[in-house]
Amino acid sequence: MKDNQRLRRGFTDNDICKRCGQSSESAIHAIRDCPVVSGLWKSLVHTRYYNIFFTSNLQDWILCNLSKNMGYEEDLDWSSKFGITCWLVWKQRNQWVFNELWSIYFGLSTARDRGYKKVMLESNSSFVIKLIQDVSFTTHPLKRLILSIRNFLKKDWQVELIHTLREGNYVALSLAVHAHSLPLGLNWFNSTPSFCTDVYRFDSLGVVPLVGS
Ligand SMILES: [Zn+2]
């Protein structure tokens, strides 16, 4: 169930897309229009079809892609490629909350192991923070992971969960981008990486850095 459906049924007070934070999460936004996935479609769809592909409503979009090759000439079975891509995008979208919760759990576990007594934990997902803090979420599929995080929070330390916009923590954003160049697994920095120094200054001043700076 997408967030705007949950909103109508009273399961959440937030219908904003959890991945981009920019738009209501309708079905067409989740699968096609979200900036997180639209680049993938642009790499698959032939540029001559961009207009019809990115402007049609959900029903027309599906019918059109099942009846016409919107890809390049070599895409002999476009309908299959389209269907598989939709499925992968949807799977990735559902994986997002799972990954976010795991990163919070792992971050708390690491901070605990290191002996920290005061921790500020920021997430750009108000939905994930609410999942952790709102004890009325008792039937969520990720209940065991959520309970493990809550048990961490009850321990003898001070942990503050804070919601921030992606633009409110450029250090985290630059670390996430940098992580693509690191080996898989936990990478621990004992000192501030040089690329974070200027970014931290922007964060502390509440200034948005120029793209590419
Ligand atoms: Zn989005």
UniProtKB/TrEMBL annotation:
Q: What are this entry's molecular-function GO terms? A: nucleic acid binding; RNA-DNA hybrid ribonuclease activity
Q: Name one Pfam family in it.
A: RVT_3
Which CDD domains has this protein been placed in?
A: RNase_H_like
- Residues in RNase H type-1 domain copies: 97-178
What InterPro entries is this protein classified in? RNase_H-like, RNase_H-like_dom_plant, RNaseH-like_sf, RNaseH_domain, RNaseH_sf
Q: Which PANTHER family match?
A: OS05G0353850 PROTEIN, POLYNUCLEOTIDYL TRANSFERASE, RIBONUCLEASE H-LIKE SUPERFAMILY PROTEIN
Protein name per Swiss-Prot or TrEMBL: Ribonuclease H-like protein
